[in-house]
Structures are given as C-alpha cells and as structure tokens.
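Repro:
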Amino acid sequence: MTPFMLAVQSLLDGAEAPVPATEPAASRSVAVATDEQVIIRSLAEQMVSEANAVLREHGEVLSLVDDSGDGELAFTVGFADRSARIRTAIAGREAVACLVIAGEPEGDPRRLASEEELRALLLSLLTAPVHH
C-alpha cells in the first residue's frame, strides 16, 4: 500500500484528517497557473485512484469530475455529499486559481498553498461533517 492509501485506512480506523493549508488566490501568468492546474489535476487522479482502492471495500468512493468551461480549467472531487472544486479562471494573459469547498462560506478567494495540500484536502473530504 502507498503512503496515501495508508492515510486513508488510518482515517477509516478513526484518525483525524489534516486541514489543508490555503493562501490567498493571486493572479499569475496563464502559463504558470495552467501548469499548476494540470499538475494538481494529475495528482488528484492518482490520489483518488489510490483512495478508492481502499474505500471500495467500505462502500462510498471518491469521485473526480472535470468541469472546465469557457475561460476556465476546473475539476471537482467529491465524497458522499461533500465536494471541493479547484478552478483556474483565465482572463487575457492572467489566471487565478481558486478552491471552493461546498458548504463553507465564500470569503476572499483562496487556493491550496501547494500541490502537497491536495492530500490533506482529499482526506478532509472523507471525514468532514455531513451538510444538510
């Protein structure tokens, strides 16, 4: 089992999930922002696959849906009724990456502090309280 698979199993055994570190969303060049989006999306696919190998035995699995549109690259990761969307909005030569977690108040735009924080984000989706 991979380290991420072990972390998923630990959550199923009752461990607490880490809280993903975020930072204010800032405008970047399109090249830098889209490169970061592609890296995070690729990492998400790998981690969702690893998590689902563990979760499948317990029923519910993570979903990963690409939902890009005009002027944006985006994907949503979900588990049960919880989800997080990572999007990079492109305007001219600038782009801004944002993280939106369903059920959390929308304040100033935030983004993951690094691609390593995707691990914490996915783990937090597995243990977050159910929103009604």
